[in-house]
Each structure stands twice: as C-alpha cells, then as structure tokens.
Amino acid sequence: MYNNLTSKVKWKNGFSNSFPVRQGVRQGGILSTHLYKLYINDLLTELEENGMGQYIGTNFTGCPTCADDIILLSSTEEEMQSMLDTSKRYSDKHRYKIHPTKSVTINKYSNSKTTKSEVQFKLDDKNMPSANQGTHLGIIRAIKDQNKTNIQDRISLARRTAYSLMNVGVHGTNGLNPKTSYMIYRVYVLPRTTLQPGSSATQ
C-alpha cells in the first residue's frame, strides 16, 4: 500500500509536481490512525513493562496517548527523565524526531534539594521548556487550580458554541422548533462541557 507512494499539493485550482512520500502515514487515510497506533504501541508497552510512570491501583496510567499526542506522568524527577530517555531512544531507533522545544514540562516536584524552578528535564541533551500549564487532548494540565481552570474553560467553550448556533435558529424566538433545538444543543453544546470524545478545548 505504501510502496512507491507519491503525493501532490493542491493550491486553488492547480497541483504541484508529484513528489515521493518516504515516511509517515497517508494524511486523512482511513487506516492511518490504526497504522500509527501499531507503530507507537511498542513504546507504550516498554514504558509500562519497565514500571515507569504513575499507577492508579494496579492500572498503569503513566502515558495516556491519542495518536501522536502523548503525556508522560510520573511522581519522581528521576523516573520522568528515564521515561524521556526511553522515548528518545525509541524515536532514534524508529527514525522519527521529538522536537524538544515543542514539548513542555509541567513540574509539580519539590524536595529538600531542589525547587520546582530548578528542576530541568532534557530531551536529546536539550533543555525542555517549563510551563505552568499545557493542554493534552482538550484537558488543561496545570501546576495549580487544574480542576477550576478546566471547569471554567469548558463552560466558556460551551457558551461560545451555544452563541454560534443562535445564527442558525437555535434560540427561543422565531427559530427552530424546540425539539430540533434541543437535539442540536445536546449533540453540539453538552459534549463541550463534559469532555466527551470528539469535543476539544483547543479550537
């Protein structure tokens, strides 16, 4: 399926010359997400088998992942650096790159020797940027007030969605009939408040 694969760029009414596709999966392809999961699954398995990352009871929760969007969770600095090193070795072996400055660390660690601001994680011998918060799969991860921040973000997103639907008649005066309005509200607005699959806070 991927032998001698070529692609073109469409711009307005024109097409570029064909060029060979030598890496990655076909963008927009039906099987692409499944093929990528097969490609990355060995890394997730290795992290779990090495016992690196957080657990809830006996359930491993150290690397929640969706496609190429991954978050590493650990309760110690040393283990986190080890997880980053494992991810880097895997990327080198399988010939893809993790950009160290496009990934961020949210550091909640603190002990007698270091403060949160002094902890510095590295990827490919480069310092990773530290941030107070970041977004993963529509959920805001933050150093403090994470739940409050997420609740306010979801309410704000749902409100914007509801306002945008008013232009198509989802309102109480001379609009769509109430049953239709309720169905639209349930399908498009409510998922924004509950982080259901398909909703996103990163729009």
From TrEMBL:
Q: Which residues cross the membrane?
A: none
Positions of the Reverse transcriptase domain: 1-123
Q: What SUPFAM superfamilies is this protein classified in?
A: DNA/RNA polymerases (SSF56672)
The family database entries (InterPro entries) matched by this protein are listed as:
DNA/RNA_pol_sf, RT_dom
Give one Pfam family, short name only.
Answer: RVT_1
Quote the PANTHER family the UniProt record gives.
REVERSE TRANSCRIPTASE DOMAIN-CONTAINING PROTEIN, REVERSE TRANSCRIPTASE-LIKE PROTEIN WITH RNA-DIRECTED DNA POLYMERASE DOMAIN
User: What protein name does the entry list?
Assistant: Reverse transcriptase domain-containing protein
- Which taxonomic lineage does the organism of this UniProt entry have? Eukaryota, Metazoa, Spiralia, Lophotrochozoa, Mollusca
